[in-house]
Design goal:
Serine Threonine Protein Phosphatase 5, Tetratricopeptide repeat, Ankyrin_rpt-contain_sf, mainly alpha, ANK repeat, repeat
């Protein structure tokens, strides 16, 4: 288990390189025979963890745990291209498991902050299975990644605009963080994204509606009531609060039932600033009835 071949590869390297489905039991046998093999790098500066993530399309949480238990620092190591195991996992995989992603993130949370192409960029670009859960794991680790730009001045949202497999909910999660940058809250920024090639209709409509919230007054502007209706129909509640922030008087036309007013104010108080709350109550004093 300790010997190397003429290429400098250990049996562990070869096992992880040749297999398309890694057995946890077989991996445990090799690791028990030579635990230090987990730290051996091949001629390309790949650790066994790198090789495992390069070569296996189906990454099991159990196999990851075996390799990381033997050498937790492997999650921080970089190959000759400067890529961490997290980069390799997101770049090479065609289906990203939330469980496997959580294992890698727990082993090295700071890997989420690697630039120029952040892990969030790679997830949005290279993997077919871009479910909301996987996006949220990376956003929770480093929300600012949504605002980071690569060497071509693209944010992760640029890639999602051209990604037909991403869900609208996942797109909304990244858009939420992207909008926290003041420079992104402009007609030009939002409309340029909506004009990206291959963007799906649902994403385009979402961006256009947000753009009209921050655009200048003009005759063709979408009315706030229509924007609110669109956000509610797509269950994007942050968007609904954006409409209220920009147009507090819109609450008058929402026809809230008396029994829901207290809950509405409670939720609004967590989302809106004191200035917005004061204007909201000023425009709709009936909200205070029964509160």
């Amino acid at each position: 288990a300790k010997e190397k071949d003429r290429n400098g590869d250990t049996p562990l390297h070869i096992f992880l390189c040749e297999k398309r489905s890694v057995s946890k039991d077989a991996l445990n046998v090799l690791m028990a025979a030579c635990p230090e093999a987990a730290k051996e790098k091949d001629r390309y500066a790949n650790t066994p963890l790198h090789i495992f993530l390069y070569e296996n399309r189906s990454v099991s949480k159990d196999a990851l745990n075996v390799l990381l238990a033997a050498w937790p620092e492997a999650a921080k190591e970089k190959d000759r291209n400067g890529d961490t195991p997290l980069h390799i996992f997101l770049c090479e995989k065609r289906s990203v498991s939330k469980d496997a992603l959580n294992v890698l993130m727990a082993a090295c949370p700071e890997a989420a902050k690697e630039k120029d192409d952040t892990p969030l960029h790679l997830l949005c670009l290279s993997c077919e299975n871009r479910k909301k859960d996987a996006l949220n794991v990376l956003l929770a680790a480093w929300p600012e990644a949504a605002k980071e730009r690569d060497s071509n001045n693209r944010t992760p949202l640029h890639f999602l605009c051209e990604n037909g497999s991403v869900s609208l909910a996942g797109f909304q999660s990244v858009l939420y963080e992207w909008l926290k940058a003041q420079e992104n809250r402009s007609w030009q920024s939002l409309m340029s994204l909506s004009d990206r090639p291959r963007i799906q209709k649902s994403k385009k409509e979402l961006l256009v509606n947000v753009a009209h919230l921050f655009g200048q007054d003009n005759q063709n502007r979408i009315p706030p009531h229509d924007i609110m209706a669109h956000f509610i129909s797509t269950k994007w509640w942050y968007g609904a609060w954006l409409v209220i922030q920009r147009h507090p008087s819109i609450v008058k036309s929402m026809n809230l039932q008396t029994t829901t007013k207290a809950a509405f104010l409670f939720t609004a108080g967590k989302r809106l600033s004191l200035v917005n709350m004061a204007e909201l109550i000023k425009n709709e004093p009936e909200l205070l009835e029964g509160v």
